[in-house]
Amino acid sequence: MLGLSTMRLQELSDSDLEELRSQVTEYYEAYYSELRNRMGDHELAIPHAAVPDPLKGYRRIVTELGKDGVMVTHWPDASDSFDFHISPDQTARELVAGQCGGEEVLDYEPGEDFGTYQIPEPLQLAVEGEVVWTASWKRLDVSSHLDAWEDPDGAREAAREALAPFEGPSSVI
After folding, report:
1. Beta strand extents in the chain (DSSP E only)
2. Which of 71, 81, 73 is nearest to 20 (CA)?
3. pLDDT tens column, 60-101
4. β-pairing, 81-86 with 58-65?
5. Would you call 72 helix, strand, or coil by DSSP?
6. Model-level pTM?
7. CB burial class (10 A; 0-12, 13-18, 19+) of residue 143?
């Protein structure tokens, strides 16, 4: 089992890497399955048009392991798929900046436990109030904890919480 300690790529075995790949895959399979099931549940009366785009559709989930953290990006796709990459020469900060138009959105000291963060919708950069760049991904997660994705039930709960604001009154008494 992967522990809570701050991630250091050089300390991970091949079986640790396989376990992480498996956990991330299972976590997001559960998350997106729950989103789709709830959006299709007529009793919840979720108006499809009200649900934000980052919660709709299929995704290509790309997990990238840096030397001190894990970044997961969610890209629109025709079906769910999962990629796993290792970037041993880059920090999580550098990986995230690479997906955020070069902006340093994750700030921490080298070797520091920076926790788990989520950017729940595509990042936009604006200059003088005008959007000049929008990320192509739909969501970005990053963590220095290897166990951030070990609980598929937590993934289902996160999906329920994400859709809760859009649920209409239930027709069931």
Report:
1. 58-65, 70-77, 81-86, 116-119, 124-127, 130-134, 139-143
2. 71
3. 999 999 999 999 999 999 999 999 999 999 999 999 999 998
4. parallel
5. strand
6. 0.90
7. buried
